Structure formats: structure tokens, C-alpha cells
Amino acid sequence: MTDPDRERIVVEETPPRVERETTVISTGERGSGGTVAAVLVLLVLAVLAFLYFGGYLGQAADETNINVNVDAPEVDLPDVDIPAPSQPANSS
After folding, report:
1. Are residues 54 and 47 in contact, defined by beta-carbon separation less than 8 angstroms?
2. Which pTM does this prediction carry?
3. pLDDT tens, position by position, 19-75
4. 12: exposed, middle or buried (C-beta count within 10 Å: 0-12, 13-18, 19+)?
5. SS3 of 76, please?
6. What is the dihedral of CA 56, 58, 63, 68, to 10 degrees?
7. Which residues, including other chains, have CB under 8 Å from residue 48's CB and lie 6 or more apart?
8. DSSP character for 71?
9. DSSP assignment of 4-56
10. DSSP state letter for 84
């Protein structure tokens, strides 16, 4: 259905949209997140070493005779007589 002798008209399309791109500029400095993590790990290890070598961890109590019995107070309640409600008759 196309006519080969007919002139071809090209309609110019609108210019393509310009997409914005993010440019990352590296200045060569590194973040300090790894340093903070390393300091925290060393601090935790130092505290654990102090507790372990100081004898605070992994040690049973010197005296294990612990009395956990507690005397409960005596409570006096008055005598109350409440009648039970009567059961309704079946209406089926």
C-alpha cells in the first residue's frame, strides 16, 4: 500500500528530554565509620577482659544458702452469701 514514488516527509521530533545524572566527586578521604566500629569493638573487649580477669565472670557465689521464703500476711475476709441467679426456662 505504500507508493515508492511518493516523497517521504520526515517530521522532526521534539528534542529528547535531558535526564539529570548524579555526579559523585571523590576527594580521596575515607569515612570514619570503620574507625568508630573498631574503637567500639576494642572498648567492649577491654571491658570483658577486665570483668573476666578480675574474677567477676564465670564464678559461683561464695555462699549459696539463700532463703527465699517470704511470710505472707494473713488476710481476713468477711463472710458474704450471694445467691446464685436462677436459670431461665427454655422458651423453645
Report:
1. no
2. 0.35
3. 778 888 777 777 778 889 999 999 999 999 998 888 787 766 667 777 888 888 999
4. exposed
5. coil
6. 100
7. 57
8. P
9. TTSPP--PPPPPPPPPP-------S---SHHHHHHHHHHHHHHHHHHHHHTT-
10. P
